[in-house]
């Protein structure tokens, strides 16, 4: 029996109980990666240390207390992994190995996870595509289409069953966009929950996990946040009560929390809870359209949540027209700031174009800061109009083709990004948590993602709702042809 394609919860439980060794689990995943990644292109580099670290986990005296014991994970190539250079999809970045793990990576390792490799991203993680000088990430659901971006390789690796969990980050949708493209889950937490990336785009970017199940996503988020109360919050949309089983080695010797006790069912139904849901199938300003099938998926998801006991109301107000230009200006200004530190001659045409536009906005004082403050201070709350959670599409249309978009200029990249992925950025501008949930299949055969957004602190609600959608309409855990 292969452990590749199994959930993180299943793998960790089996390793803790001695049903399988961490070494066997990692070996099997590396074998699957070797077979599948030549076509997909998810990984920039695999880690030679992975098997040695699996042996170390197997020998740990506290193995029984590790929530991610032996679980293979992938890490986005803009987060430091000790011993490997952090290339951020660019030949202009340093080839010097990182001297230490990023804190989020260190938390995964402390929980027993094994980092098997670093995943491909577009240059400087600036766009919703997956191409760079290191390769083009293709969508496992359709290899002619992009896996999205910028956490491109992570989403593709999870969708293709190469790892159960991937760590990425989201500055304007960079977790939710590729997850929706590839038919997996991803959550962008609110500020302060998970240590952010070094380049956090003026506080817009948050680190978060991608996974195939809500239980895996919740467990990964709890480790990244060092908050055990999130591990099982999917059950009732709230942080869990203390349990007799304590994971002291991970939770800083805290006696306050724990994950599920041995033998407790991981298949329990999510408990009922009642929220007021705003349903916004077409939240975009006039001039930007959402595919009709994407809108239908939003309505179907709202119906499922209504059947689960929630109150849902149609939300027909569009996002304010001024927010779109402000979001673009903010994005371009952040692109300029990232490029300022590098040799421009070594950057791709797309990156140079984005940076030039950002510098122009910066000189004109149009960096989006005032509009962002307006949206954060009151605009988002007013637009929510009393809803606890907003149900909306994650994407506006199907992912574009997989191509070397980095060799093309500003205008082409900008137009395609804005057309297919304009729904995620507003929630980076506000800092509110958001999740994408695979919920339906397009007539083209591609997956459709539903975005759930909540006010600050609403991560448990988002995970609880996602679990109810998972139960109402179970989705394929992996892309067709990639089940082990």
Automatic annotation (TrEMBL):
Asked if the record carries the keyword Lyase, the reply is no
Which UniProt keywords are listed? Hydrolase
Show where the Amidase domain sits. Answer: 25-463
Superkingdom of origin: Bacteria
Query: What molecular functions are annotated in GO for this chain?
Result: amidase activity
Claim: Hydrolase is one of the keywords in the record: yes
Identify the enzyme class.
hydrolase
E.C. number(s) listed in UniProt:
3.5.1.4
- Say which family it is in: Belongs to the amidase family.
Name-wise, this protein is: Amidase
